[in-house]
Amino acid sequence: MMDEGLRSELGKQGIFTTTLEELYNWGRKNSVWPLGFGLACCAIEMIAASMARWDLARFGAEVFRPSPRQADLMIVAGTVTKKMAPQVVRLYNQMPEPKYVIAMGACAISGGPFKQGYNVLKGIDRYIPVDVHIPGCPPRPEALLHAFMKLQQLIDAQALTGGSRPRHLLPEAPSEFLVPEYGPHDLEPPKNPDVWCPPVVGGRET
Amino acid sequence: MTPPEPSSYLVLALLLVAALLFGLTPLALAWLWARFFSPAKPGPTKHAIYECGLESRGDAWIQFRSGYYLYAILFLIFDVETVFLLPFAVAFGGLSIGAFIAMMVFILLLAEGLVWAWQKGVLAWK
After folding, report:
1. Which of A57, A85, A151, A188 could form an S-S bond across to A183 if both were Cys, CB 3.0 to 4.6 Å?
2. Which pTM value belongs to this model?
């Protein structure tokens, strides 16, 4: 591994140094292919972000794939109803590793205005690991672009070895996440305890 | 004409080897990289048939009734007819008698086809 100081010194002399890992992550972060998957009004903002005015193509992420088999990123854009949640988790499971999730908007991160309702999931992070949360109702395309840049930073910082390597390189990490069943009263189970560790406020789960 | 020297063919063989290496080396590198840094993580859901997130029911290899074919053909005929009828209606006032007769013959041909199909019992759903 090259010393940072030497590297910066070489850079000043016009000598560019890199590692395989950096090259790999540089390629990965600049060709994130999202799944073409919209749930509610946030999807309109997502579509706007991919069109000419906001131009998601600048981040190499304009290739919205119609199949999870070819997608790296799931943008959970909108309200996840309890009836839809099993399908969302199943689609996530069908995506190849390494895969990432952006929870877009108040509904996807927490249930939003429907949090107290009976039929809306209170945040998709109850079932799948979310990398970037964006608040807003709906978030503007700029917010989605910001989330993309955050995700790119995250991918860039992922080492191929050591403890911080991506999940798919950990042998003990699960290959699939539990798909809930749509039951008569609630989703069964109502959350995946391996994924979701809620803060405990005043002795009860929020 | 003298036959070409063997060395000129050697160049071709070398080019073939170079071309093969050019194609196969990236593939081999990608395979090696995937082996170490992108191990397969299979699972029952991942291997399941893609049905937009839903569980697939029954067999994917189903047969469609051939009756649909006749419906498609009939639909196509009247779809195309509409395309011609619209400009016909727009230009109706300024049409010559010859154009009018030609259009009537066209409609008659299609109507005749419909009557024939009707008599054949194509429109009756069995």
Report:
1. A188
2. 0.75
